[in-house]
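Appendix B, record 7
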Amino acid sequence: REPQFSQKLITCEGGTIGQIDFFVSVSSKDKQILGIVSTWAASFLHFAQLSSQLQSKGEESELFIRQRKLNAFLLDVAKSIFQDFNSMDNVILKVMNFAQKLVSADRASLFLVDSKTKELYARIFDVGQGEDELVKINAEGNKEIRFPMTRGISGHVAASGEVLNIENAYDDDRFNPEVDSKTGYHTTTILCMPIFIRNSVIGVVQMVNKADGVFNKADEDAFEMFAVYCGLALHHAKLYDKIRRSEQKYRVALEVLAYHSVCNRDEVVKLRQLEHGGRIAELETYDFNGMKLSEVEKPLYAVYMFRTLFNDKFRFDPDDLTRFVLT
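Structure tokens (predicted):
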């Protein structure tokens, strides 16, 4: 039989390496999630094949080792998104920690682009080598740090989209020494890379002070390859976060709707107290006009009519009937 939905696994070059067929109906929300999963799956398969080819040739080069690290990073980020995802901060932390280790940098920073305000912002800033060296911006009561895209090394990279490899930060006019003066840290070398998604800069990763000298061409190449994965991780984390937020809003809306569409116990008791077992002769007159009834009389008359017509036909709970009419 024909599948009801098919999800292709497409590589970065646009080639199809596989296809997943579903023989049950798939909702639009599930299709979005499947699109995310298939992107990661295609990346894993592509680089697993590449690793197998290199291993079969006996090539244990530095490029191969870095490629394996990138594969491990992809897997780690995918787990973060789909298993223990709480916020964008989790993904950002993994991105910064991996980038720092990839090029042996002492410090790492990641800034995201706010296209509406033309600013760079970060909720997590300045990750060092140790776990205790993580500095969160909101520790001082602020949710994030922001500055214009026209300011500093990161701003220049975000605005121009070009890579900057600076051997001496204080010799560059674009460097802003305010952070060093406030923290007592001395910045020497900087490697700053833009993160692209669909030809637009969505963020900037900045590495500071290489452990053994200056950032070289190999670092730039590895960092540039990493920036592609970084953009993929951030893009899908944002998309998954958006789906989760939409689902939460949907649940809240349902709860509010359910709350306002069902009467409470006090309303049921109040109407039951107003009921009388006698006959309402007015309902049997030819000129009876229900539009003249008050808001209290309308449910009372409805309950009376139901009980008059069906009281001998079947059993029902009076409270359930009252609750149904009020709802």
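Remarks on this record: The first helix runs from residue 28 to 56. The mean pLDDT is 76.
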